Amino acid sequence: MPETASVTAPPAGLHRPELDRLGVTLGEGGGTLRVWSGAASSVELVVFDDTDLDWIIDTEPLTAVGGGVWSVTTPLLRAGVRYGIRVDGPHGPGNTFNQGSLLIEPYSRGLDRGGFSDWRSVVVDGSFDWGGVTKPRVAMDRTVLYEGHVKGLTKRHPKVPPALHGTYAGLAHPAMVEHLLGLGVTSIELLPVHAFVTEPRLLQHGLANYWGYNTLNFFTPHAPYATDEARQAGPEAVLREFKGMVKLLHEAGLEVILDVVYNHTSEEGIGGPRSSLRGIDNRAYYRQQDDGAYIDVTGCGNSVDTSQDAAARLVLDSLRYWANDVQIDGFRFDLAATLGRDESHSFTPEHPLLQAILDDPALADVKKIAEPWDVGMGGWQTGNFGDGWHEWNDRYRDRVRNFWLSDVDYARRASTSPVGVGGFATRLAGSSNTFSQERGPLASVNFVTAHDGFTLRDLVSYDVKHNLGNGEHNRDGADTNRSFNHGAEGATDDERILATRRKAMRNLLGTLLLSAGIPMLTAGDEFARTQRGNNNAYCHDSPLTWLSWEHAPWQEDIHAHVQTLLRLRRENPALRPIHFARLDEHTPSASVMEWYDEHGETMSIERWTDPTHRTLQYVAASTPENEEFNRILLMVHGNERPIAVTLPEIDGVTGFTSLWSSADEQPGAAHDVHAPGAVIELPGTSMHLFRAQ
Description:
Blueprint lengths: L22 E5 L2 E7 L5 E7 L7 E6 L1 E4 L2 E6 L7 E7 L2 E2 L2 E2 L13 E5 L3 E5 L22 E4 L1 H5 L13 H4 L2 H10 L3 E4 L9 H5 L23 H6 L1 H17 L3 E6 L16 H9 L23 H17 L4 E4 L2 H4 L12 H8 L7 E4 L19 E3 L1 H21 L7 H7 L15 E3 L9 H4 L35 H20 L3 E5 L30 H19 L19 E6 L8 H5 L5 E8 L8 E7 L5 E4 L9 E6 L11 E2 L4 E4 L3 E7 L1
Parallel strand pairs: 12-13, 12-19, 13-14, 14-15, 15-16, 16-17, 17-18, 18-19
Antiparallel strand pairs: 1-2, 2-6, 3-4, 3-7, 5-6, 7-11, 8-9, 10-11, 20-21, 21-22, 22-27, 23-26, 24-25, 24-27
Helix pairs in contact: 8-10, 11-12, 11-14, 14-15
């Protein structure tokens, strides 16, 4: 593979030639810097000494070359050079030009620190030998996402050398690769790795922005995640370490997905830092009212105005860089609804940027996952992104939590559950009431937990959040968690409660990993990690958020269940349909679904909504194109009373082989075969999976 993959021009919608080749382009004898600022009156290149980053050794003015672009070609620009820009322009509402401010050039591939809070852009050559390693290109129906934090994954791993703890190199260490492959995931979705900073208010409390949703620059990898050796060698070495991580994970067949934050930047609200875009052209890069007040639909102080071509192109060019130069396999777009807001600040799925991301040949092979909401008016858009997008499905999360947790809590107090099984069944089968027939079940990224919220273990152990350590008097974090502590808040020695919690976790994991759609597992949930009830641990860079790799036997049992469930998902194509089946039609790569009650009879309309009947048998039969025919039966029982379930009589089925049960503390090795019409005893709140033969 060449050092930099060939990248075609962006799609016509954002292809303004004057916006091509922004940033630094190296050539013989120097380099060319191109910066866009539609309102600037002057732009100046400032070059620093290689070792004293506060010593300016030269400056050169940029020349306006049309279309808002300023350019200079100079021998001062060479690999390794530290530089900044100064931009001046008119004063007035919406403009915040200051000729004295040293600014990060937005297309910088490297950053270095100058003084306490100033930053210097760094010219990076970017050469790297990929050695013929290519992207794994895992099919969407076989994709299993594993959401994790670069530092948190390996900071405490005993088999990763201490020098690699919490680093890009540590993530690619054989011990981590072995864990990921052994678990059965295919794609690591990393919390933000674009260069980011901690907000001043957190620093005042002695806390840190651990998650990284406070982007400083869209092209530079976060240097603190690199090894000491790479950081001391400089930004070029940091980038090489990052690419080396990607290469090693690709060699193992694992994809790398980046959680990207293009909706806002670390410049916060007016009065916040002037580090880059605010000083270059505030009016063009951030959404504002006529008087210059920010329109904040992100809850982070500012919102990038992607209705402006230069801002949208900055996002698109960043994606193209990571997907091709760095060989990233996909992106999860934080608060993606913000990216799809037009000049009137309303969301539209036909937004030029959203369409360009889909249409760009340079992004054709990457996975595109939207967090389909923001906090602005009309910000909840689950199901409304176009064909080609996959979406975090919060409706799935909420319904599954309700079914196994808050409904059960309600039933203990009211003697009956509040709802029947119908809504849960819809989510299990791919959320066809949320995603169109054309988009199919793979439009849904199913999740029960994520970085934001309770861990799986805390979800079954706490009724309320415990966020006092965040310094906000427990006001931050979600108040509605749909969790259930099963009789005691937090830690307990009551074995009855602990056993019920373990089964609840197995039910949640079983639902997640056996549902139609793309499952996303949160790192640490395979071992039932706890954050002691903190459901918003974004500001804790500590053992609270770093994964522990020392586990009790019951945690190893949970891990074994996840391994088993993911193996069963791989082996049974009926569990991972690509399309929704159509009534009375043969749809290739779909699953034809049938629903039976506990008596083995077809589910009646009344049974779907009756809260006193929360038992169903879900049968899915594949319509294969590239795999053998497959049919599964999944029993679901959603109240705490045990029940006898009669296996249905289905044409062509001679028996049902037991594959997995959530009632087992350890996944069973036996594969008992049961005849149609046989009775299966299900304990309260449990699941049982069979393969039909």
